[in-house]
Write a structure and sequence with these properties.
Layout (H helix, E strand, L loop, with lengths): L1 H5 L4 H30 L6 H5 L3 H15 L2 H13 L5 H14 L2 H6 L7 H14 L3 H27 L6 H9 L3 H15 L2 H12 L6 H23 L4 H21 L3 H11 L7 H28 L3 H11 L24 H31 L4 H35 L6 H35 L8 H27 L2 H30 L3 H5 L1 H32 L1
Length: 570
Amino acid sequence: MEQAATTPLAWGFLLAGLFGGLVFFLYGMWRMSEGLKHSAGSGMRKVVALLTNNRFTGLLTGALVTAVIQSSSATTVMLISFVRAGLITLKQSLGVILGADIGTTFTAQLIAFELTDYALILVIAGFFLMFYGKRNTLKHIGEAIFGFGILFYGMKLMSDSMDPLRSYPPFLSILHSLENPFLGLLAGTLFTALMQSSSAFIGIIIVLSQQGALSLEAWVPLILGANIGTCVTAALASFSSGREAKRVALGHVLFKMAGVLLLVFWIPAFSDLVVSISPVSDLYGTEKVAAETPRQIANAHSLFNIGIALVFLPFTGLFNRLILKILPGREGAVISGTGLTGIDKKSAGTPSLALALTRAEIAGMIKMVEEMFAKAIQPLLEEKSPMAMSSGSVIIREIEWMEKKIDQAQENLTRFLLDVNKHTLTGRQSAEIFTLLSTVKSVENISDVIKKNMLPVIARKQQIDLDFSHEGKEDLKAYHIKVSKQLMRLRSVFEEKSFEKARKILYKQFKYLEMEEDFGMKHLKRLTEMQEKSIATHELHTDILEALKLVHQYTVQIARGMINMSSAEQ
């Protein structure tokens, strides 16, 4: 041992092997993640329905989705989009965050299996599936296996390169300095924040632990630091985003910080618990520590995240109130923004996730169009008065603002979908992108109809002295209610991916078309009867009726496109 300790190290070969192995390790993790995400395919379609149930299904969904897509950051991006679109509440998102923290430990568990001796076999098997698999699903599974093999090959390179360091005093001194809990916490936080991946840093810890220099208790502070570091990156990313993004990121930070504070003073007891539930080898001394510690690290990482989920899940309501108190809503806001410009461009590389996010954003667009549609009819049906005129002017400004938001959303979503289209897609995903591109344009057309066809009628009505006849007003009100219901059904199509609602829109269109024709005939009858109010408001009445009809036609057009896409998938 003394001789080994004094033997000069070949630093060039050591560093080349270490960093080369790290490159293979990170590349393998990325390929494995991409393969898992793509093989998930349409399974991501059901995520919205699962997320909108209770906190327990949210926890399970967050764990499952993150285990598949191997990115808690991607799950957080999805949550922010859903919260902005109004599909889930902040409180519901907190359960999913806790689940995502569990799901992100999946990679560490895989790494801890120490399949380094079989790395090249995995690479070969994955390669053959990638290039000779007949179905896309098989190709993507092959990509995941290929990445898994590359990952373990990188681990083997790093482990072999670091073997001489087992007896190198300066290296051992650095490792032992990390036994200080606060230094370990700081190092784990900083390195994870720099790498932007807790899974990657935990993997490196596992490789280091294979040297057998330290027991689990010394590695736990680094594990806790990695858990803080992973939410630091999310918090930094939210600084340039909207309030919803900041709230979701703050929830993530609060959970991790509270969990670390609860555990940091009980590290020895926690380590003993992990050791008691982890496998035991028949080896002795350093070899025993080297063989057992990797699995213990993975188990500690999982147990910590499972523990904070079980402890904090019943208190998501309390955390929700705390977050809203720290980041309250802006006072005096007349209308809320949709947040439709906040999709992370990185999610374009995961088509299944990107399409789920796009559907959530479209639901948000439709929700804003519903608000525009509801506001536009108010000054038309009110009795003429100074207060009504003032209210009408405010409504006009609000609708013009919302129409600009819809225009911006349409441009952003179109660019985003075109970016998604550049990646490897299934035939079903390509068809959905085409349908969604058409949909966002049609939703934008509805907002144009409200602004260009209905707002001028409001201004013209304010200039005349007469209101609509009582019968005419009731007809317009009834037709507006029916079209509003169609818009609500359309929003459900995207919130729940409910093709049943789309079919109901098509079924109702014939009834509403007959209703519109009936209202038109009744108005003509009032004209022939020379009713003064009907004559004075004739053009306004027909213009409004035509605008309502156009909104309904675009709604039906979108529903028909979704049904056609659904039929093509089957």
